[in-house]
User: Which sequence fits this backbone?
DNA sequence: AAACATCCCGAAAACGTTTTCGGTAAAAAC
DNA sequence: GTTTTTACCGAAAACGTTTTCGGGATGTTT
């Protein structure tokens, strides 16, 4: 009933534990004959090495930690899938924790993962995070850490991102190209780098096209669990504040969908009255009515890339050849749909 | 640079490792004074117990495994969130793997988790799974396992489910109540219990209302990654086969949304020409047009309940008082929306 | 003063693996 | 026939923790 150990195999074959271990790990100093015997018996007894012991001995867990702001989220669940699939290929398992966009929780989760002694960390930081000591501590411990999407510019680690600024610029330019004269922006929270960058891209596009930048046209969403509601609220507010807006670039599809729902309810026609561009290309955006123009953000690929990079760094550290951080930028694409039909 | 161990603390205080360990774990046979000293030093040195050693010694990992068919999925990501949040409260971490609806992969993933020596398993079985030996083996190893949603009736373990049959009955009855005379059903794959039960509920409702059951009105979807496409295909096929259908009960919202998209493209009006009820209450269903009537399936709660049950069983096994399996049925609710407006 | 209980501490074994280092025997070289 | 190489094996230490058990000191009861 008890799990089979090296000792059990050794005793049955009348050889030492050492030899059994070596036989199973293809050490050169064990004869073909005994290697064969060990292999065979191990198989019939269904021997599985005790991970706890292996971990203790080798000081690695073949496990990585993943901290994300939200789990029920199209983009993030794609990232999760990408990370897990890639990790599996390399024999790593993934422990997932959620920060819920809170700095305190994020800190706690990272602590938890470190005390579990994961071999590496992948993280997309919370909206609430402005202080990065908890992240720098990870690096100080020589644990590799890779950030994706929502990164902290000041932390020296590898990052997998998109060019948010460029993508936002493209989105806004698209609105301008199809004739919008007064374009609003629903931005994300104030702290996250990507929401800053998307805002800057929006602003730059206006300036480059000789259109005035009007701060009152910029609305803030905290995102998190209530994105949809925020979209509705901002849409209502926008109509009250400015009746001349004919285009909006919105930080996230879910917010955009909330806004569209509200506009529809209030009798504002899309795209006739207001044209809308979202961000992320949630699946939903292709099935709602009207379908939503958006920026495709490659979540699955981002996850895969993040793990690949982490894997390289974990190996580099094992071989005492730590690498310098790398920033990988993945391509995005403007997906034109009905919400910006001219 | 190296992590602090009990030994380090012991040496600095000139006491034994034993005493340090006991002091930190509130053993009664250590004086208040030394306990205080140990505690203090542990804190200043930022001592974190080495999980690998603890695991090896205690034979538990405080980690559970979760195997689900798909990750990028509204229902399942809600379950994930529920499990993780509850596990965290009890000091457990969660390792997630995806079976991709494949029996082979499911088997492999379970093996992986067992060799990682997780303390328990939560699983929703794949469409492709017809043989349950891999699950019975887990039970034979005295590892608790809890199934949810897609269960195997024949495996003796706890299960968290909804009453699929009743829910499907309610959904179909609703279509009948609003005047549908000829109701089709897009069912799930042939093997999964819940897709069987939903089909049976549909059939029963017809019979109880003296409506003929017509097998040619039942279409099969394999689900998995291509649910949306299957919905479209089946919708097209249905129109060819039967031009008199005025209502459809569909196994999953995503398939229903695919069908609605196709109907819209083909000029079939919903709910005027055909009324539709989905299943699961994906968020999407409340924002598409027309909004989709569906059965709300409490994913988050299911996840929480599943972990709670697993937790009980893990403790029971630790205390050598194994419990008998429990089947917990959660309530569902019919959410009436535009797709069945009469 | 002897007997007993109480309080505190530490030695040692155990969990199962990996890896270093020596050692013995047989084969090869001189 | 002696030395050197090669092939194979095992003892032992180590990873860091937990827990059992015994024992010494101090205090309390006869």
Assistant:
């Amino acid at each position: 009933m008890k799990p089979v150990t090296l000792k059990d195999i050794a005793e049955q074959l009348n050889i030492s534990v050492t030899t059994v271990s070596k036989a199973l790990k293809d050490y050169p100093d064990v004869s073909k004959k005994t290697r064969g015997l060990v292999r065979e018996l191990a198989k019939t007894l269904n021997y599985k090495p005790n991970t706890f012991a292996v971990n203790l001995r080798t000081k690695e867990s073949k496990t990585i930690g993943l901290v994300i702001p939200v789990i029920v989220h199209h983009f993030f669940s794609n990232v999760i899938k990408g990370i897990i699939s890639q990790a599996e290929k390399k024999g790593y398992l993934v422990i997932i924790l959620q920060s819920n966009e809170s700095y305190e929780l994020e800190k706690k989760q990272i602590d938890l993962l470190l005390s579990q002694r994961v071999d590496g960390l992948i993280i997309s930081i919370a909206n609430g995070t402005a202080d990065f000591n908890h992240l720098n501590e990870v690096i100080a411990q020589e644990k590799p850490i890779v950030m994706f999407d929502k990164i902290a510019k000041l932390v020296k680690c590898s990052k997998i991102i998109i060019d948010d600024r460029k993508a936002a610029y493209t989105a806004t330019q698209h609105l301008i190209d199809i004739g919008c004269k007064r374009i609003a922006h629903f931005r994300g929270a104030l702290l996250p780098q990507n929401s800053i960058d998307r805002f800057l891209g929006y602003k730059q596009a206006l300036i480059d096209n000789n259109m005035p930048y009007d701060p009152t046209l910029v609305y803030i969403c905290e995102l998190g669990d209530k994105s949809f509601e925020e979209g509705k609220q901002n849409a209502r507010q926008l109509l009250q504040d400015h009746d001349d807006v004919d285009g909006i670039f919105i930080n996230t599809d879910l917010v955009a969908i909330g806004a569209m729902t509200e506009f529809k309810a209030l009798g504002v026609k899309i795209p006739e009255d207001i044209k809308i561009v979202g961000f992320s290309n949630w699946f939903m955006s292709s099935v709602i009515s009207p379908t939503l123009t958006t920026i495709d953000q490659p979540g699955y690929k981002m996850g895969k890339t993040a793990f690949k990079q982490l894997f390289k760094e974990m190996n580099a550290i094992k071989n005492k050849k730590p690498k310098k951080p790398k920033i990988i930028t993945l391509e995005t694409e403007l997906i034109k749909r009905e919400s910006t039909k001219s």
